[in-house]
Amino acid sequence: MSEQNWAGNYTYRAADWRRPTSVDELQAAVGAADRIGVIGSRHSFNGLGDADTVIDLTALPTWMHHVEGSDEVAVAAHMTYAEVAAALAPHGLALANLASLPHISVAGAVATGTHGSGSRNGNLSTAVRGLRVVRADGALVGVAADDLAGSVVAMGLLGVVESVTLAVEPAYEVAQVVYDDLTWDTVTTSFETLFDSAYSVSVFSRYGERPEQVWLKFRADDARLHDHRSGTALAGAARATVELHPIRSMSAEATTAQLGQPGRWDERLPHFRAAFQPSAGEEIQTEFFVDLRDGAAALEALRGIAPALDDVLLVSEIRTVAADALWMSPTYGRHSAAFHFTWRRDPPPSIGQSASSRMRLAPLRLGLTGERSSIHRRSMWRRPMSEPATSVAGGRRSIRKVASPMRGRRPRWAGDPRRSVVNRVAERRRRRPSARRW
Fold first, then answer.
1. Bridge partners of 393?
2. What is the full DSSP assignment across 35-54?
3. Between β-strands 169-170 and 93-94, what pairing exists: parallel, antiparallel or unpaired?
């Protein structure tokens, strides 16, 4: 029987599947292979996690370790965020933020810089306080605190992540309010203000005449929530009186509770319930990141090609993410606006439409408003959104291959014995994003 990814658009070619049931078995499988792929929740839209040998982590035990009074927990890296939230609940603990889907694995999410929304919220990788990794030789090692900046968002370059230590806080409640019938003028003229008007803000649209929905998520003790419950706080928009799905043609049964009713943090911060199929299912996703200050300009550029997107775009979600210090993160050193696209799986977006969107956004990438504006494209055609660490065998040979674009140049860290090889490789890739983009 052939194995497919979450969306069903990719069939794995691997002939050798390993499903370890213990860490010892995982180490043995990694150490014995020349080259491997690793999968977990399979929320990936390409073959980056594929290889002749694939290790499926989902048979490993799930566990969480918390020392009473500590603001950190260690979890099995292949656990989904829904599983982590359930494990935290008896301890009265929570994470600061979640992505749209609670179905994704922790290891895959933090390795790829996956994010939720909120102008003051970093991506999920910023919650990481420690990692344990199975290296290509099968050894299980901890990542030093000084190396986390170059190791968390690593896309599988460093090894198979076995466990992750995450920052936690006391549990809290969140209420969600949805508006529809907003005007584009409201969004573009006050872009940063709108996206800072709640703990988490998402705008759903197909870039037509009007935005379709605005989802605002508030912590239950936020004083701003009162005005939004009355439906008077967002000028030019009407508060939804029934629950909505981001794709209007779909039932809202799978979405988290709206209408301003407070509930557990993990039952409001994601858009979709853990027990249901998230989003459309049969889809492909891509995402662009721009400087937050260029968000309105990027929005106008996309509105200019709305007719070309009409037949292939299910929905687009606009979110904001706070800057971080993780070298390979899409939001490294820059508060960002993220434009996420959910495409129809069949037919997939054509080369022409993909190229058209890139051309429209190219002026921002090249510095429409100065050197600060640098767009990042995170394409699900080329790397996974939230898969576990991938393809790590080969040792020094693989590292030299990754580093080859810089061969012959003297990098700024040359001669510094304090910098490890893996960190130097990660920095090279961060400083030369063209080596891993289209």
1. none
2. SEEEESS---SSSTT--SEE
3. antiparallel
Specify whether the CB–CB gap between 200 and 121 falls below 8 A. Answer: yes
Strands 53-56 and 16-18: parallel
**What are the C-alpha distances in Å from 150 to residues 145, 410, 423, 431?**
10, 20, 6, 12
Distance CA 244, CA 382 (A): 31
Residue 400 scores a pLDDT above 90: no
How far apart are alpha carbons 78 and 393 in whole angstroms? Answer: 19
Beta strands in 292-400 (DSSP E): 313-321, 336-344, 376-379
Q: In sequence order, which residues have a C-beta less than 8 Å from that of residue 187 and are 6 or more positions away?
A: 194, 203, 211, 296, 299
Write down the H helix ranges in 304-393: 306-309, 351-366
Q: Is 295 helix (H, G, I), strand (E, B) or coil?
A: helix
Cα dihedral 436, 320, 156, 127 sign: positive
Judge contact between 51 and 14, C-beta under 8 A: yes
Token digits for 382? Answer: 């080329």
pLDDT in tens, 31-53: 999 889 999 888 888 888 888 99
Task: Give the number of residues written for the chain.
Answer: 438
Q: How far apart are CA 77 and CA 167, in angstroms?
A: 14
**Calpha distance 102→85 (Å, rounded):** 9
Rg (CA), the chain: 21
Q: What is the pLDDT of residues 346-357, one digit of tens each?
A: 755 554 455 556
Residues with Cβ < 8 Å from 363, sequence gap 6 or more?
A: 301
Question: What are the residues whose beta carbons fall under 8 Å from the beta carbon of 84, sequence distance 6 or more?
Answer: 64, 75, 95, 106, 166
Instruction: State the Cα–Cα distance between residues 137 and 307, nearest whole angstrom.
Output: 52
Q: Is the Cα torsion angle 394, 23, 276, 166 positive or negative in sign?
A: negative
Strand segments (E) across 184-312: 200-205, 213-219, 238-239, 263-264, 283-291
Q: 369 CB contacts (<8 Å, ≥6 apart)?
A: 291, 293, 294, 297
Lowest mean pLDDT among 7-11, 72-76, 152-156: 7-11
Buried b (16+ CB within 10 A) or exposed e, 211-246: bbbbbbbbbeeeeebeebbeeebbeebebbeeebbb
**Residue type for 107, please?**
A
